């Protein structure tokens, strides 16, 4: 339910800095006058506003640091229900400290002495958080306002509304009307949103985002378009700021009834005229004959039209299913692009002339799934085991891996991020024992290799330096350089080929999406980490663009500040479309081949290229096309060229990386044996799937809780594991979950705790000596405070709201 503050108990302070004394540092912003005037009028409107004039303090000129802080402190002391603080002026990022600091600049402020004559955002946040008001709303309309989102909000009902992205400079307006962001803010407060309810902080943020998407491009390339961001803590987003509402439309049933009434009156008038003209007294015979013929024709046409309109629709058979194998980095983006294909007219044109699927019926359905590059390559090389999984492994072979388990179903199309993957499997698929054949590869799009740094790098250019020079520059500035695992990430593999020391850059991330998530965690640490990521441009595009479907969910709606550098000696990744034909799939081969070619034609058409570009990919042609929509991306990166890397050298580098960077894991599976938790079939299958997913160098042990070790640490055959699991029996007493987590024996690197959460403590939050993966056998068990606490330091949690076995395997990866 919306929170409506009392006007007499609320306070607002509107700060607009229009004039600056040091013109060399900051230009005047005449639009600040219009901003505060228009916003005050909207907030104090008799019909709509939630404030009264005497409770709104407007500070425009002279707006010094001391006067601004005095006005803010007064409002903080007086507000009891709602405190609203608004600032418009120059924002400045001070980069001289350990982390960038946002300052709000007043009349006498300078760039060199921002710490002395500017208002630190963190200090302002602390001042507002100390108010006794029930709700606090802070609105910033200035450059770099988005950087305020990098600071956690206070643990109280607090809302933050900003006008720009992280690291973004916005236009200061025309000097007459309000700035674009404040103009949109006043418009929503005055007109309302699309809903018929009052304007709250959250609905205000949503509507401002819609208006931002409609804004025309800026003529000045030195500035970014304004982009609002709304963040709230402790349910403060439901705070009402305006009573403006959209008028409720006339109900649909009433509009339909009015239309029926009008048409019936019109029809009655036409019918009366026709009857009088045909059969009225004194009408000639030809009137009667003509009227009768027309009536008969209308009756015949009506019956015929009714029969045509109500004829049974043709039965549409199920569309042909195309399975598309991709990499984890591109799966979400390709799924979004192929959804657009299925909504296009090309997806309804019959594949063949035999009429199996009539015109208008869906012809093709696409399923996109992903596997790391190393697992996909291993599956294509051993396609016979993929085609016949029952013959893939011997019963006692613990090192064997099944492609059907590691990768998934047989693909019809393979879309790796790089043609290097195709090169590595081509020879194996051309051998007689191969169960598949790969078609001609087609490049769909490109994604340049980049070094994405959280700060500008000294002594290097955005597109003219080598990868080694960029990495050296980052390290010289004290930055941590990270990449994903080159065995499963094509972007990291490209870096490995041109920087053979990549093995020392490993982050533990299996792919570039996980690398972006790790980087986000580092950016919100206190103090934040200074990072440089070796990745692809499409990954960074997802990190800085909240609207992309390829954006990892861990990033939320907050953008990250990255400066992007393009190494001139690393070729771009080329998203490659490769048809896959299986020996066992000949019954529908004509239809399947036609569908594969239909999809390729659409992806290489203007419509397909448009949707790929919308997901952060550049055109396949040379040069690499227009820049992405952010000033931190270089406009035209050079297209690196050179001879292909010999396969033998690539294989040797990957083996060297594995030998230097991969440490064997020692895993303890602790199983809750309390009567409420133990279910043999479920737990046996979980442990079996998890053990089969481990690497050849990994070791594991199984322990009963309560009880003790039932299988010692080591590598075990399937028979040894099954025998140990068969000895587990439920017990009729509580399981010591807390002591199990706290007292993991030395020598283990990971604890996998399988429990139903019945015996997990509700208050105590023990710290485990190793990372913990909790497998909760209850719905939404991961929401429990205990599970959150024990997995907070490098662990993970899965529960029955997911597929337990798949989620556990993914967590171990």
Structural description of this entry:
It is built from 25 helices and 28 strands. The strands form 6 sheets. Strands 12, 13, 14, 15, 16, 21 and 22 form a 7-stranded mixed sheet that branches. The protein has a 6-stranded mixed sheet with strand order 2-1-3-7-8-10, sandwiched between helices. The protein has a 6-stranded mixed sheet with strand order 25-24-23-26-27-28. A hairpin with a 6-residue loop joins strand 4 (90-94) and strand 5 (101-105). The longest helix is centred in the first third of the chain and has 28 residues, at 252-279. The mean pLDDT is 82.
What would the keywords be for this entry?
813 residues, alpha/beta, seven-stranded mixed β-sheet, six-stranded mixed β-sheet, 25 helices, globular
Query: Tally the helices: what do you get?
Result: 25
Distance between the termini: 42 Å
Cα-based radius of gyration, to the nearest Å: 33 Å
Structural class: alpha/beta
Share of β-strand residues:
15-25%
- Summed over residues and divided by their number, the pLDDT gives a mean of 82
State the share of residues found in helices, binned by percent. 25-40%
Shape: globular
The parts where pLDDT drops under 50 for at least 5 residues are: none
Question: Strand count, sense and closure of the main sheet?
Answer: 7 strands, mixed
Annotation, overall tally of beta strands: 28
């Amino acid at each position: 339910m919306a929170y409506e503050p009392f006007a007499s108990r609320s306070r607002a302070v509107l700060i607009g800095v229009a004039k600056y004394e040091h013109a060399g540092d900051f230009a005047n912003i005449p639009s600040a006058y219009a901003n505060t005037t228009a916003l005050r009028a909207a907030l104090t409107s008799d019909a709509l506003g939630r404030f009264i004039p005497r409770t709104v303090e407007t500070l425009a000129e002279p707006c010094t640091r001391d006067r601004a802080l005095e006005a803010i402190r007064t409002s903080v002391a007086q507000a009891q229900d709602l405190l609203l603080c608004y600032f418009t002026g120059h924002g400045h990022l001070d980069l001289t400290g350990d982390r960038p600091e946002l300052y709000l600049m007043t009349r006498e402020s300078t760039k060199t002495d921002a710490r002395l004559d500017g208002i630190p955002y963190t200090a302002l946040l602390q001042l507002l958080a100390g108010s006794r008001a029930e709700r606090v709303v802070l609105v910033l309309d200035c450059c770099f306002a988005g950087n305020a989102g990098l600071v956690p909000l206070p643990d109280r009902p607090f809302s933050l509304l900003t006008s720009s992205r992280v690291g973004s400079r916005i236009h200061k307006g025309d000097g007459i009307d309000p700035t674009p962001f404040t103009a949109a803010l006043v418009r929503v407060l005055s007109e309302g949103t699309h809903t018929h309810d009052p304007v709250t902080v959250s609905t205000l943020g949503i509507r401002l985002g819609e208006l931002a998407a409609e804004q025309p491009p800026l003529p000045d390339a030195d500035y970014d378009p304004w982009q609002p961001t709304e963040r709230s803590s402790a349910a403060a987003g439901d705070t009402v700021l305006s009573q403006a509402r959209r008028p409720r439309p006339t109900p649909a049933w009433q509009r339909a009834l009015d239309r029926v009434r009008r048409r019936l009156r019109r029809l009655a008038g036409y019918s009366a005229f026709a009857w009088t003209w045909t059969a009225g007294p004194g009408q000639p015979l030809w009137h009667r004959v003509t009227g009768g013929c027309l009536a008969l024709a209308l009756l015949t046409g009506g019956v015929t039209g009714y029969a045509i309109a109500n004829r049974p629709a043709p039965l549409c058979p199920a569309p042909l299913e195309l399975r598309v194998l991709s990499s984890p980095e591109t799966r979400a983006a390709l799924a979004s692009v192929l959804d657009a294909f299925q909504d296009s007219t090309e997806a309804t044109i019959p594949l063949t002339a035999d009429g199996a699927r009539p015109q208008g019926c869906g012809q093709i359905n696409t399923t996109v799934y992903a596997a790391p590059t190393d697992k996909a390559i291993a599956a294509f090389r051993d396609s016979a085991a993929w085609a016949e999984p029952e013959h893939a492994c011997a019963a006692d072979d613990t090192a064997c891996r099944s492609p059907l388990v590691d990768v998934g179903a047989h693909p019809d199309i393979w879309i790796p991020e790089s043609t290097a993957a195709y090169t590595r499997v081509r020879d194996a698929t051309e051998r007689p024992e191969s169960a598949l054949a790969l078609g001609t590869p087609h490049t769909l799009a490109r994604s340049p290799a980049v070094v994405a740094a959280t700060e500008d790098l000294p002594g290097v250019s955005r597109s003219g330096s080598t990868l080694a020079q960029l990495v050296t520059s980052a390290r010289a500035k004290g930055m941590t350089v990270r990449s994903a695992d080159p065995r499963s990430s094509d972007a990291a593999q490209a870096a490995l080929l041109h920087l053979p020391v990549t093995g020392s850059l490993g982050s533990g991330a299996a792919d570039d999406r996980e690398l972006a998530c790790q980087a986000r965690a580092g950016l919100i640490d206190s103090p934040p980490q200074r990072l440089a990521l070796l990745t692809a441009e499409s990954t960074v595009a997802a990190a800085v663009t909240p609207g992309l479907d390829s954006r990892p969910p861990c990033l939320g709606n907050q953008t990250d500040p990255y400066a992007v550098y393009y190494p001139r000696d690393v070729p771009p990744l080329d998203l490659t479309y490769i048809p896959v034909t299986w020996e066992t799939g000949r019954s529908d081969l004509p239809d399947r081949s036609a569908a594969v070619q239909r999809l390729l034609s659409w992806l290489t058409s203007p419509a397909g290229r448009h949707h790929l570009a919308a997901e952060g990919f550049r055109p396949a042609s040379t040069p690499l096309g227009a820049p992405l929509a952010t000033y931190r991306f270089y406009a035209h990166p050079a297209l690196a060229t050179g001879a292909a890397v010999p396969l033998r050298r690539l294989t040797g580098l990957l083996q060297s990386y594995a030998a230097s960077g991969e440490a064997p894991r020692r895993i303890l599976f602790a199983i809750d044996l309390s009567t409420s938790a133990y279910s043999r079939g479920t737990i046996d299958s979980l442990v079996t799937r998890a053990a089969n997913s481990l690497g050849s160098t990994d070791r594991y042990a199984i322990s009963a809780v309560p009880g003790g070790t039932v299988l010692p640490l080591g590598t075990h055959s399937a028979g040894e594991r099954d025998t140990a699991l068969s000895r587990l029996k439920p017990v009729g007493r509580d399981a010591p979950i807390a002591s199990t987590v706290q007292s993991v024996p030395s020598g283990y690197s990971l604890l996998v705790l399988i429990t139903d959460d019945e015996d997990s403590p509700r208050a105590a939050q023990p710290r485990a000596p190793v990372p913990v993966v909790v497998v909760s056998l209850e719905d939404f068990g991961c929401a429990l405070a205990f599970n959150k606490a024990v997995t907070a330091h490098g662990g993970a949690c899965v529960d029955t709201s997911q597929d337990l076995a798949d989620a556990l395997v993914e967590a171990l990866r």
